[in-house]
Amino acid sequence: xxxxxxxxxxxxxxxxxxxxxxxxxxxxxxxxxxxxxxxxxxxxxxxxxxxxxxxxxxxxxxxxxxxxxxxxxxxxxxxxxxxxxxxxxxxxxxxxxxxxxxxxxxxxxxxxxxxxxxxxxxxxxxxxxxxxxxxxxxxxxxxxxxxxxxxxxxxxxxxxxxxxxxxxxxxxxxxxxxxxxxxxxxxxxxxxxxxxxxxxxxxxxxxxxxxxxxxxxxxxxxxxxxxxxxxxxxxxxxxxxxxxxxxxxxxxxxxxxxxxxxxxxxxxxxxxxxxxxxxxxxxxxxxxxxxxxxxxxxxxxxxxxxxxxxxxxxxxxxxxxxx
Length: 323
What we know:
By secondary structure, this protein is α+β, with helices and mostly antiparallel strands. The chain contains ten helices and nine strands. InterPro entries: CorA_cytoplasmic_dom (IPR045861), CorA_MIT (IPR050829), CorA_TM1_TM2 (IPR045863), MgTranspt_CorA/ZnTranspt_ZntB (IPR002523). It comes from Pseudomonas matsuisoli.
């Protein structure tokens, strides 16, 4: 699907392409969402640019993701989609940014791009050129990362409260296995964001350090502001990663303590019942010459020895502070 974005009465508006015959005049941004082969060829022929396949967009080397050709920038950062649905996945967005027109190619719906028109309505003066729209899109993607990291931090705070909470009364004990799963999902998502922020850092460095005379000062200033935000988010992400590692270690430690407590109970029970078992075993032997077998008080004596040996074992454990 091809969507055109152009100015109308000073505001950025969108409409879907009705045909693949010609690109309307005044279009500043062309967005290709899951484009077909025919749509890719149409845009390539109309603009004289190269639209990569989805496999080519996934290449990891910088020379394939960030390059310039005939004054046109080709940039491919990694973004995270599907966060709202609980199924996050890494996706690439391909930017073709020239002096008069911006082209984006993507294969997933992205919240940051859906909200651009509303952002343009609030700040129309910052969305009147292709390079300004490009800077706004990059800013929107980084803002989305920041919002998600803040939400993750709130969830980590709640998980921390569950882990360190002292159960008592009607309060239930934290399900530590479920906590580990939550921490694992947070760590996986954090790794995705680390990769995304790395690619956006490369994109910004490539854009700012290159000699692009047509990249206007407002767009450069916007890109520079995003660069500062990325530095802050990188430190924030590193701190969250350390916190996740700490909470995971604590959770595993608590699980080990619980398991040790259970083993301790069984060990104490085995030791307490060992002396009575020994007494019962001795008097369970059927030798001919056992005087107690014919003694009327032999049975009560054996039972008393069993109870006394168990009680002495319990008293020893309490004296040692093991119970």
